[in-house]
Design goal:
The structure holds two protein chains of two kinds.
Chain A lengths: L3 H4 L8 H10 L7 H5 L6 H9 L3 H11 L3 H7 L21 H15 L13 E5 L3 H12 L3 E5 L8 H5 L7 H13 L3 E3 L6 H10 L4 E4 L19 E3 H9 L3 H8 L3 E5 L3 H12 L4 E5 L11 H9 L3 E3 L2 E8 L5 E14 L5 E5 L5 E4 L2 E4 L37 E3 L2 H4 L4 H21 L1
Parallel strand pairs in A: 1-2, 1-4, 2-3, 4-14, 5-13, 6-7, 6-13, 7-8
Antiparallel strand pairs in A: 9-10, 10-11, 10-12
Helix pairs in contact in A: 2-4, 2-7, 4-5, 5-7, 6-7, 8-17, 12-14
Chain B lengths: L9 E3 L2 E3 L3 E3 L8 H10 L3 E7 L13 E6 L2 E8 L8 H14 L5 E5 L4 H13 L4 E5 L12 H5 L1 H14 L4 E4 L8 H9 L4 E4 L3 E3 L21 E4 L4 H13 L7 E4 L5 H9 L2 E6 L1 H6 L3 H16 L27 E5 L9 H9 L4 E4 L4 E4 L9 H5 L6 E5 L33
Parallel strand pairs in B: 3-4, 3-14, 4-7, 7-8, 8-9, 9-10, 10-13, 13-14
Antiparallel strand pairs in B: 1-2, 5-6, 6-12, 11-12, 15-18, 16-17
Helix pairs in contact in B: 1-2, 3-5, 5-6, 8-10
The chains are: A alpha/beta, B alpha/beta.
């Protein structure tokens, strides 16, 4: 069977007529709250006004000059929690579809052949960017515009990081990313693939090799394990193994294990939602979501949770996995769960699940995906080059990305833990400004 | 009074119409098949697409129309290079016979055009002989490709009077003359038509316009294989101007003929406004090109309900009722002044009022950035009311008359210190003979 049709392409965005209708509905606020609400300084008030006044190329320029990943943010941003949440038009009817307009404009630019960027003249030092996700690409673009010679080191075979390998293709596909990357290449940024920078030693080598500064944005690709030694059980995988595997188009491998089978996904965040939808699209007969707290406490966005319900996912709430059952061949056959009850709030402010003694039961499963958190990759150690906290996250200033090492900056998930694309973009921008300032002084 | 008791019928130049809603002479009235469908939908009558003698072939340019869109609002204007009917006269006459046979209570007004006196008389007679209830003389098509026809006649008052007279000589049915708006004072040709014997006036035909120019080839649209032309522009965009032409004719004491109004009509509100400035019937094309014949249902229902709410039971009681209130600007009472009044309770905080007041009016608004709300400095308000035009919330900003002792603040000068450099004397003190 062809998995491509389920996985390769995301849904089409809105068209010109829809975008213009939305721009017509915009109240063109004096002090637009949408523009105040974006973590990455996106200015919807300006690009929507430009669209309204038929200055489409100007609108595209407004988006892209601020955010090299303006298209990706238009697609992936939880806009209902950010710009659209603040929209004044809500007082009339409903928020303007800001994310949709943004995506439309960026794609319209690609389709019409309008290029925002010209290659700037390289007049300044070499800077290395470690990691090719949103933070790294954003930092690289800003530095290139300032005349720095930027090289991005991508760990995998293609750049993009989380938006290439962590987000399912049906939410953000390769074609879209390719177009967005072309805008970056227009700026003269060099991207080297399959170049994993191995921790502190690697970073220091870059400095020794003539890079004046290094920006670290490798992301967080590790995950805690729920049950010790589960890595040897066949049919139990972690979310990066599952999602990255699918983005590497290893459909046959996962299809065999999932199609027509019973799948359980453990976790309650956005990543767990991606895993259940992916399992469902792979043809699983039943998909269970196992979560130890209640529906209202899941970290995933409400839209995502409701979408999962509509997909027919079975929500097993207030259940804590305690062990896996396997057959003689070491393959998972079931999951032992214990029911929980909510107690008093814990540190996160959410009520803590308390196991109900003697309530263990077994859910028969053929395949399990653990999606219980994103932590730094334990095999990579940055601690001798820069200060690292207990969780393994790099300690960096949130306004500048400055680390304990004057020539090393950091941003994105490796600093803040798992965050939004738009937040990583802003980290990259802020770090680029700080790097330029630091190098100008030097 | 309920809407059921409302009588929408009108007597127009001696012809009875069940309602004042007519198709105008255009593509929407091109054949009996189309017109019959419109009668079924509720239209009261038709001005059938212009007939000619057939001595000159009529060939339509291709393409023949172009829209003027505004934002996501489609077709606020429409440009066309439509010609008069390109069907054989005989076919059109057969279709008129059909309509009269099958819809005897729906008047058919035959629009006619000629290229010489004999031509005019020939077509007019043919239309009357085949059942037309009335004629409309097309003196106003702004883009006829045949010289000496269309609006060029409408601008040449002697020709217009002569052709009207010639037609009147050969027919007994009422004759209406259709005016072009491509003229400064529309009452002038209208009065000449009256002298020629016209029984009614219809207006306005389309305005000469340019709806759009190709941005790649710089050819105005519709682009007829590399050539554009100034031609008939119509639709809601021209309604305010057309309304003024009707009002001018209604007020003209020398004219005194019943009027059939045309120009951007889509809704019962448009109809009402034309009635109030003196029209007895109205004609529609662009509205039908945009929405189809079905719009007549909303015109009739809306007008009936409005009349019921006002206790008016016949259309005649609305005709010309706004005219006494329509005066030259020197009739204004300048003693009475007012300002904008804000209902902050329902404000959504967009601040468009603040922007326009500061950039285009009296700088009478301040902005409370904390609350994201405007604040009116009442004595700076010029009462232009543009804030209310951009406000997305209905009735948030209204006009309020102020007491006689209310004073508006004068606009401040930027730098009174510049007075010593000023070269100025009040007008009375300047001696220009020096």
């Amino acid at each position: 069977m062809s998995y491509a049709e389920h996985f390769q392409d995301m849904e089409k965005g809105i068209g010109l007529a829809h975008a213009i209708a939305e721009a017509d509905r915009c109240l063109l606020c004096y002090d637009a709250p949408c523009s105040e609400a974006c973590p990455a300084e996106t200015d919807p008030a300006t690009f929507i006004r430009k669209l309204r006044l038929r200055n489409i190329t100007g609108a595209i320029r407004t988006i892209k000059e601020n955010n090299i990943l303006g298209g990706a943010c238009g697609v992936l941003c939880p806009t209902s929690q950010l710009c659209e949440k603040e929209c004044s038009a809500t007082g009339i009817s409903r928020p303007i579809e800001i994310g949709n307009i943004q995506r439309f404009l960026v794609e319209y630019g690609w389709q019409s052949g309008f290029r925002v960027f010209e290659k700037p003249e390289v007049t300044k030092e070499k800077v290395a960017v470690v990691g090719s996700g949103p933070a790294g690409l954003s930092c690289a673009a800003e530095l290139a515009k300032e005349g720095y010679q930027v090289t991005v080191f991508a760990e995998r075979g293609e750049p993009g990081g989380m938006i290439r390998f962590g987000v399912p293709a049906y939410r953000f596909d390769k074609k879209f990313l390719k177009n967005e990357l072309q805008d970056l290449y227009d700026l003269g940024v060099e991207v080297l693939c399959n170049e994993k920078i191995e921790g502190s030693e690697g970073a220091e080598k870059l400095l020794a090799d003539g890079f004046a500064a290094v920006f670290l944005s490798p992301g967080v690709w590790g995950t805690p394990r729920l049950i010790p030694n589960a890595e040897n059980i066949k049919g139990v995988v972690t979310y990066p193994e599952f999602l990255v595997g699918l983005r590497e188009e290893r459909f046959e491998e996962f299809g065999k294990q999932v199609m027509g089978k019973t799948v359980a996904v453990i976790g309650g965040g956005s990543v767990a939602m991606d895993c259940i939808e992916s399992a469902s699209k792979l043809g699983a007969r039943d998909v269970y979501l196992v979560y130890r707290r209640s529906f209202a406490q899941m970290p995933a966005e409400e839209d995502e949770r409701l979408a999962a319900l509509r997909l027919g996912i079975h929500f097993l709430l207030l259940n804590q996995p305690v062990d896996y059952l396997t057959d003689s061949g070491g393959k998972v056959t079931g999951m032992k769960l214990i029911r929980t009850q909510l107690g008093d709030p814990d540190d996160s402010g959410r009520r803590k699940p308390i196991e109900i003694k003697g309530s263990e039961w077994v859910l028969n499963v053929d395949f399990v995906v653990e999606a219980i958190g994103q932590i730094p990759d334990k095999t990579v150690d940055w601690s001798s080059a820069v200060r690292v906290d207990k969780k393994g996250l790099i300690v960096a200033d949130s306004e500048t990305g400055k680390t304990s090492n004057g020539r090393i900056f950091a941003g994105g998930d490796i600093v803040r833990g798992p965050g939004l694309v738009v937040e990583a973009v802003q980290d990259g921008k802020l770090a680029a400004r700080a790097i330029a300032k630091a190098l100008a002084k030097a | 009074m309920t809407a059921k008791n409302i009588d929408l019928s009108v007597d127009f130049a001696g012809v009875k119409f069940k309602n004042p809603f007519l198709l105008s002479s255009s593509p929407v009235s091109n054949s009996a098949e189309m017109v019959a469908k419109s009668f079924e939908a509720g239209w009261g009558g038709v001005v059938y697409k212009t007939l000619a003698s057939g001595r000159w072939p009529i060939i339509h340019p291709s393409p023949r129309m172009n829209p003027y869109h505004h934002g996501s609002t489609r077709m606020v204007g429409l440009q066309n290079v439509e010609q008069i009917s390109d069907r054989p006269l005989k076919d059109n006459l057969l279709d008129i016979l059909y309509l009269k046979k099958n819809y005897p209570d729906h008047p058919v007004i035959a629009s006619v055009m000629g290229f010489s006196t004999e031509d005019w008389q020939y077509v007019a007679k043919a239309a009357e002989d085949n059942g037309a209830d009335m004629l409309e003389l097309n003196f106003s098509c702004p883009h006829m490709t045949i010289e000496g026809s269309g609006h060029k006649v409408g601008q040449a008052t002697a020709l217009l009077e002569g052709f009207t007279e010639a037609v009147k000589k050969v027919v007994k049915i009422p004759v209406m003359a259709k005016m072009t708006p491509n003229i400064t004072d529309i009452t002038e040709p209208a009065v000449f038509a009256k002298k020629g014997g016209a029984d009614a006036i219809s207006a306005v035909n389309t305005f000469r316009g340019i709806s759009e120019i190709g941005r790649d080839d710089w050819v105005p649209k519709p682009n007829i294989f590399g050539v554009g032309a100034e031609s008939g522009y119509s639709g809601p965009a021209i309604k305010p101007i057309a309304l003024h032409f009707i009002a001018d004719m209604a007020k003209c004491k020398d004219l005194g003929l019943p009027l059939s109004a045309i120009g951007g009509i889509e809704t019962w509100v448009d109809v009402l406004e034309y009635l109030l400035v003196g029209a007895t019937t109205i004609q529609v094309t662009t509205g039908i090109i945009h929405y189809g014949y079905r719009i007549v249902e909303d015109m009739a229902e809306g007008l009936r309900d409005y009349m019921a709410s006002k206790g008016i039971d016949k259309v005649a009681d609305l005709i010309g009722k706004a005219l006494p209130n329509l005066q030259e600007t020197d009739h204004f009472d300048l003693e009475r002044q007012g300002r904008a009044e804000y209902n902050y309770e329902i404000c959504v905080g967009c601040g468009q009022c603040y922007i326009v007041c500061n950039d285009a009016a009296g700088q009478a608004l301040e902005w409370d950035a904390e609350k994201r709300r405007p604040k009116l400095i009442e004595d700076k308000c010029l009462s232009c009311m543009i804030c209310s035009f951009v406000c997305p919330v209905p009735d948030l900003i209204t006009f309020k008359e102020m007491r006689k002792d209310w004073q508006r603040k004068e606009t401040a000068i930027m730098d009174p210190g510049l007075e010593k450099e000023l070269k100025y004397q009040p007008f009375e003190e300047v001696d220009l003979r020096r």
